[in-house]
TrEMBL record:
This is Peptide/nickel transport system permease protein. It is a multi-pass membrane protein. It comes from the Bacteria. It comes from Rhizobium halophytocola. SUPFAM superfamilies: MetI-like (SSF161098).
Length: 335
């Protein structure tokens, strides 16, 4: 991808985020319900209510509120959470690492697991194993991530209590971290017992998020590999005596990875959205779990910050996917 293409996408990202900000701000102001009414005690006076409206900037017209919010946001001030009484930006930065570690671990599981099964299915084509893989993969495609989460809780949390069912880390071990990237920090600092504890808390949510992604990758990559195996360059390599495994991995895979990469990026953005429910089921302290609490409490500043954060994540992922697509497909470099 050329520098001009990157700059164009960056400009589009800014416009997209602005559009998201306008839409979410407007929708939150027209839906029924008063966030101040959820904060006041039964004996609060009209003066107390008015003071709260002034404090959170809800006493002005919607255009004025939006202008003030945009001005403060550009200065790095995303407002104060109504329900948690803390800076929205600090809350996002505190919770975001947990969601990112969870999402990228699920992505790693999906890519490695899905890629290996797709290669195995390609090697096993025209054998009884091929339709069996298709049937099982169809089953995995049909089950959404939150259903996998419930199944895993029942099987690995209740029936066979192998892994912790909630949280991110044992509370007695949660001290002494320099960052909020617990998994990465514990690994880099060689605290392996701590790393194992964090990983055990992640197993079930990672499986819940990663299994549907792996199923999508299996289907897409298997079809792309099957088409690539019919090409002339593969037939020529076969005539030269190349083994079937080398044909799939060395010849077919590099030409099949392009469409798979694009779809994986799209599915990864959906998976980020899926963390909202999965984190709630496992009481995982990420931005997804916090988003549900923000909606329940009608915490307008926090909801706005969360939506913008999700929007920024989606845009960054799409830009990265475009750049990787250009890397694996030379014809896209100047697109």
């Amino acid at each position: 991808m050329s520098l001009t293409g990157i700059l164009n996408r960056a400009a589009m990202a800014v416009v997209t985020l602005l559009g998201v900000a306008v839409i979410v701000f407007g929708l939150l102001r027209i839906v029924p319900g008063d966030p101040i009414a959820m904060m006041i005690s039964p004996g609060a006076s009209a003066a107390d209510i008015a003071a709260l409206r002034v404090r959170y900037g809800l006493d002005s017209s919607i255009p004025v509120q939006f202008g003030v919010w945009m001005r403060d946001m550009l200065a790095g001030d995303f407002g104060t959470s109504i329900s948690l009484k803390r800076s929205v930006l600090s809350l996002l930065l505190e919770r975001l690492p947990a969601t990112l570690e969870l999402a990228f671990a699920a992505l790693l599981l999906g890519v490695l697991g899905g890629g290996l099964i797709a290669i195995l299915a390609t090697l096993a084509r025209r054998t009884p194993l091929d339709p069996l893989i298709d049937v099982l993969n169809g089953l995995f495609l049909a089950v959404p991530d939150f259903v996998w989460a419930l199944i895993l809780v029942l099987v690995l949390g209740v029936a066979f209590p192998v892994f912790p069912m909630s949280g991110r880390i044992d509370p007695s071990l949660s001290q002494g971290f320099a960052t909020n990237f617990y998994l990465i920090e514990s690994l880099l600092t060689l605290r392996f017992p701590l790393f194992a504890d964090i990983l055990s808390h992640m197993v079930m949510p990672v499986l819940a998020l990663g299994l549907p992604l792996a199923a999508v990758i299996v289907r897409t990559l298997k079809e792309a590999l099957s088409e690539a195996m019919l090409q002339d360059y593969v037939a020529l390599a076969r005539l030269k005596g190349m083994s079937e495994l080398r044909l799939v991995v060395q010849e077919a895979l590099r030409n099949a990875i392009g469409p798979t990469l694009t779809l994986t990026g799209v599915q990864f953005t959906f998976m980020i959205g899926g963390t909202v429910i999965v984190e709630r089921i496992f009481s995982y302290p990420g931005i997804g779990n916090m988003a549900i609490d923000a909606v329940i409490n009608r915490d307008l500043p926090l909801i706005q910050g969360l939506v913008l954060m999700f929007g920024l994540i989606f845009i960054v992922i799409n830009i990265i996917v475009d750049m990787l697509g250009a890397l694996f497909n030379p014809r896209m470099k100047h697109g």
